[in-house]
Amino acid sequence: MVRTEQTLKDPAGLHARLAVSLAECAKRFESALTIRFKGIEARADDVLQLMQIDANEEDVLLLSAEGPDEQAALEALSGTLASSC
Prior knowledge:
The protein is α+β, with helices and mostly antiparallel strands. It contains three helices and four strands. The mean pLDDT is 95.
């Protein structure tokens, strides 16, 4: 398992369009990807779970990946999150 923390830079927070982008990214990998914030953990491939996180700009999210392509998956998810703003 690999993990990283990332600050959400999108002024709109974790909104629906970003949740869809993250889910599409996560579905490209075999590894299980999760995003955690304030005790809520969401599967990164599930838009509805991501929307429940309700994170805002400058909130710190914990991203994790576990599986055969975990490093590449985590980097892609992190890149998707960073390029959203």
